[in-house]
Amino acid sequence: MPKHVPLFLMLAALTAVPAAAHTPPAAELGLATAQRLAGAAADACRQSGRTVAVTVVDRGGALLVLQRDPAVGPHNGEASRRKAFTALSTRKATLALARDARANPDTANLATLPELLLLGGGVPLLAKGSPVGAVGVAGGGGPANDHACAAAAIAAVPGFDPVTP
């Protein structure tokens, strides 16, 4: 005669999910790390003789850090914020996004969305493939320079996936 198994144990066994099916939450981007990223981006541009505005946003697009060198025009603060937001929301570097939009008439209208800025210098921050925020750089002498400074910052702070072109 089979042993009696309590109903709650049978239900627990039926609803149990293997541990491998659970994915841990993506890493949170803290203020100290955001400040390191902003400093690293500014340092990378300074080594090229450029001063910039740098913004770091979290996974929800909320501002964590905005720093602007006094020598950079005030509009660059907003430009760096919008570049970071664009990179986060599209999960793509804004330099590549801008080039893709110019090359494809079907995506050219992305430039008309109020918060998006299709200008190089915004790079998404990924940790193990999951977005945790973004870095935006403006005022560094052109979109390619801004992109390079953002990418250098991400490479200088451990814990993030490498920037892909």
UniProtKB/TrEMBL annotation:
SUPFAM superfamilies: GlcG-like (SSF143744)
Segments traversing the membrane: none
Keywords in alphabetical order: Signal
Gene3D superfamilies found in the cross-reference section: Haem-degrading domain
N-terminal signal peptide: 1-21
Family matches, as InterPro entries: GlcG_carb_metab_protein, PduO/GlcC-like, PduO/GlcC-like_sf
Protein name (record): Heme-binding protein
Organism expressing this protein natively: Telluria aromaticivorans
